[in-house]
Amino acid sequence: MMTALLEPCMVIAVLLNFYILSVSRLKMLIVVVAIQGVILGLMYPIVHQGFAPTAEAGLDLIPLVRLLALTIAIIAIKGSLIPVMLNRAVLLADIRSTVTSVIGFVPSLLIGGVGAAIVFVFAQQLPVSPDHHSPLLIPTSLTTVLTGFLILVTRREALAQVLGYIVMENGIFIFGLLLIEAVPILVELGVVLDLFVGVFVMGIIVHHVSRAFPEASTEHLASLKEL
Amino acid sequence: MMLLLIILVPTVLSGLAMVVPWNQWRPLLIPLAATLHLGLVITTLSGGETSAFDRWLAIDPLNRVFLLAISCIYLLCALYAPGYLWARANRSNRVLCGCVLLFLGVTSLVCLSHHLGLMWVAMETTTLVTAPCIYFNHNARALEATWKYLLIGSVGIALALLGSFFLAYAMIQAGSESTLLFDELVEHSHKISHPWLHAAFILLVVGYGTKMGLAPMHTWKPDAYGEAPGMIGALLAGVLTSVAFLCVLRFFHIAHIAHEDRFAQRILVFFGLLSMGTAAVFMARQKDIKRCLAYSSVEHMGMLAFGIGLGGMAVGGSLLHVFHNGICKVALFLAAGNIHRAYGSKSTDEVTGVIRRLPISGVVLLAGFFAITGSPLFGPFVSEFQILNGAFEAGKPALGLCFLLFLLLVFFGMGNTLVNCAFGPLPEEGTTTQFSDRFSVVFPLLLAIGLTVLLGVWTPEPLPAWITDAQQFLQRSPAE
Question: Could you give the ipTM of this predicted complex?
């Protein structure tokens, strides 16, 4: 039952990756990344359900409340706090509303597609525990990491690079779903918190970048290099 | 309690620095924290508590060496802080002092943590607390350096997280209870899933190697070291990169117990030689003093990885080199900082005649150059020689010759930059600032270079014994 819910989520996450690679409007990019974040937040309780034999343990309220609280926290941070903050940065810093790519959108989509295919084949080679939920989980995670990385290295705008970083962290989060039992709450919170602080600091920097240079494009950040 | 104090004392003082309103007195908190920290470290290491919080924090033969190293190196930088910040009284140092103090707390946490997740969180925090320090000068170049540092550092640390997850999954795969505590990971790692371990090890070396500044993930280094104040450069090159190296060693240890040491060694030798080669290439004709030192840091991180990759006695050489490299880098970066202050430039086009303009900083810069390139009589010679010896002893003369070749290239490249600015004509009157070799900005340099010379002729007890212990700890034969 759980797999039936989980797999559509993962398919959507992968499709969103391709969409992320093709979006050229910054605001749209922020929205799409936020949607992906919300989907991850929804996957979290589904996977957790899969692990916990609720029928035997009976109705224990405390883990349930904890689970709900964490889910809400993840969705709130990934789905609303971060996008709101980034949108504020766009407004305050008067950043250009289009994203440009060093290699163009079609080539980056192509690389993303080929990369995803390779990842799906590669993931077949890795030994997988029989008891975990879906064979899609590992390739979805790695594809998302790859997408984030691609955005990070090919987009010129500072904010788009921040979004690439967030997508990368999303991919890592999906892999983390495999380890819910192993990773204690500290690490779960650490992931979300670090993401938040990282983006917060990056947001401040973007603000400084845009005050120092118009359009907050990292092309202006090119005076430090070897001759 | 002692272990917690080592982390808490600098953290609390950092909070204090953020609320102290006096710009002039605030920098004094840094040497205070460093002295207290070294005192606490020595007390703890000479027979205090060895673990806390269910072994989430613990002292073992490996991190004992690193804890002592970072505490000593930090103290040398801390002694320089007040003199430097008084020379820059026109600028608020609140954020810098707070971050530098917090930096000591979180790097100690990285050292002490025996938990994969905790170590990762602490390492990520080091990126966040050092970024404002790099941006201290608040100009466009500093901003660019900070941006690159944050972005590359965060990506590196994100890959390290993925690697940590892979490692945890490799344990689940093996059917053993999944855990993130190092002691348990090491204990169970002989039955770990090998494909996942391979993937995890590569990601972890790339991730933490980014923080170390191994090539090709070193690109943040010349920018960050070039634009940050000299003191921050010294802290990054001496303390931050050393604790990142400790993280890499933790995973090397796990790979060793899992009978994967050949695989792990090959990867470390590859990154080590690549870093040394990259540094040698970029140091040739380098016109910027601080960037030149940054590449020297890339080179020495390569040496550390190379030594571990060789195995045998080279491992001890690498561990000793953490001290020698760190202390010598402090001397070099602080001297470069003084030169930058005095000339208002760090390019060899404008910086000439340093020996006459700043006699003490100039001599320290030259001596530091000879020391770091492995000239006899200085500390780094001892450890570099041990690594080289290890290469021949391990029956890998080709690797040993590569190591020698890169050392030679670096000597010429670095010499070309640093010797040129040490000698040559004095700049014209009026083109330099009023800054001069005052006692407060010179004695930490002299202390650091003095220590470098001392370590070249005599390694104080109990350091040799501790290094041997750490080496045996890393090379302990697998349980089964």
Answer: 0.86
